[in-house]
Fold:
Amino acid sequence: MIGTPELIMIFGVVVLLFGATKLPELARSMGSSVGEFKKAQTESERNLKEFEKSLKEPTASKKTKVQETAEKLGIDIKGKTDDQLLEDIQKSSEKPKEVSQP
Structure:
């Protein structure tokens, strides 16, 4: 951890490098940089929380492509996982198609 003597030495070096007239401008730019960093940090944290929330939400309202395909083929999708639906889709594709006669 940096102690008081080290901080005084760093401040002295900064005054020598930039001069007393540039210090307020330097402090303002550092402050705005810290502000921008905090904004970006809070925004990324909010995006992460929204992503985690979307993962936890039930997918009942969102249908996967497997579920949509199964419904189009007339397969009941209630209570079935995507793997089970894929098996049902595969079985239905192996069945011979019924030909309607005029």
User: Anything to note?
Assistant: The first helix runs from residue 4 to 18. The two ends are 90 Å apart (CA to CA). The CA atoms of residues 48 and 82 lie 27 Å apart.
